[in-house]
Amino acid sequence: MPQHDVLVIGAGLAGQRAALAAAEAGASVGIISKVHPVRSHSNAAQGGINAALDPQDSWESHAFDTVKGSDYLGDQDAIEIMCREAPSELLTLEHLGVTFHRDERGRLGKRAFGGASAARTYYVADITGQAILHVLYEQLMKHEEVTRYEEWFSTALAQDDDGRIAGVVTRNIRDGAMELFAAKAVILATGGNGQIYDPTTNALICTGDGIAMAYRVGAPLMDMEMIQYHPTTLAGLGLLITEGARGEGAHLYNAQGERFMEKYAPNKMELASRDVVSRAEQTEINEGRGFPDGTVALDITVVPRKRIHEALREIVNVGRDFAGVDITREPIHIKPGNHYVMGGVHTDIHGQTPIPGLYAAGECACVSVHGGNRLGANSLLDTLVFGRRSGEHAAEAVKGMGMPDPSGSSLQDEERTIRSIVERDGTGRRVSELKAELGQTMDKYVAVFRDEDGLNTALEVVRRLKEEAKNVAIDDKGTVFNQDVLGALELQFMIDNAEAIVISAIERKESRGAQYRTDYPDRNDDEWLKHINVSANGAEPELSYSPVTMTQWEPQERTY
Amino acid sequence: MADTQTFQLKIRRYDPESGAPAYWADYDVELPPERSVLDGILQVKDREDASIAIRCSCRAAICGSCGVRINGRSALACNTRIGDAAAGGRDGFVTVEPMGNMPVIKDLVSDMEAVHWKKVRRVVPWLVPAEDPPEGQEYIVPAEAMLDVTQAMACIHCGVCVSACLSMEVDPDFVGPAALAKAYRFVGDPRDGEEEARLRDLAEDPHGIYDCTHCFACVEVCPKDVAPMNQIMRLRRRATNDFGIKDENNGYGHEKAFVTLIEKYGTLHEAQLLPRSFGDGSLVKGQLKPSGAKQLTRELPTAFRGLKSGKVTPRKALLHEKLPDQKQVRKIFHEIESHDERIELNLYIVGELGEDEETA
Question: Is the pLDDT of residue A224 over 70?
Answer without folding.
Answer: yes
